[in-house]
Amino acid sequence: MSGKPKLHYFNGRGRMEPIRWLLAAAGVEFEESYLEKKDDLTKLRKDGSLLFQQVPMVEIDGMKMVQTRAIANYIATKYNLYGKDLKERALIDMYVEGIFDLNELFMNYEIQPADKKEQHFANMMDKATNRYFPAFEKVLKDHGQDFLVGNQLSRADVQLLDIILMAEEFKPGILAKFPLLQSFKTRISNIPTIKKFLQPGSQRKPPTPEEDIPKVMEIFH
Q1: Helix crossing, 86-110 with 114-127: angle to 10°?
Q2: Residue 56 pLDDT > 50, yes or no?
Q3: Which alpha helices (H) appear in the chain, and where do they start and end?
Q4: pLDDT tens across 83-115, in order?
């Protein structure tokens, strides 16, 4: 054991990407073990590594942790990305849950049947521009600080940047009406650990190419 967290997932974003982002933001080096075929997942299930028979799974501090939110909560708490008191933590949770909801829409887009893609795309862009981004623009305006909660980096900032960059892949000008989110994006992107994660060659994953989706689906179904 190298002592580095070890991430078990397929070689793509999915539910593991928020966890990669948090570790990277905290400056923590991690290893990855990729599921390349259904047998790889079956093996983890058979050897008792997956409490609920599913990934993401992260080996960290002697534990084999599953459930994305539980893993993210642990990492955020361990590396001081979870606010300074209960109230701040409640706000961070609230913001992150909204981000997870939007992320779910983005993830589901990839697996939509061809005849449903256009409708799903319109729906997720509508939600991003009329529900989620206006909410975060308002949070930044009302709070008046560089970060979403308190005045220090938290998991909410890290995960909001992740979702903003994803939204821009779908629609490059999506932040046009949100000046505070634009400056937030620039500011958080320039934090040294995050800047490093955004460089080519890092462990940040690109979008999964459409032709690879069936291969990924075969692992899980």
Answers
A1: 150
A2: yes
A3: 17-25, 38-46, 68-78, 86-110, 114-127, 133-143, 155-170, 179-189, 192-197, 213-220
A4: 999 999 999 999 999 999 999 999 999 888 889
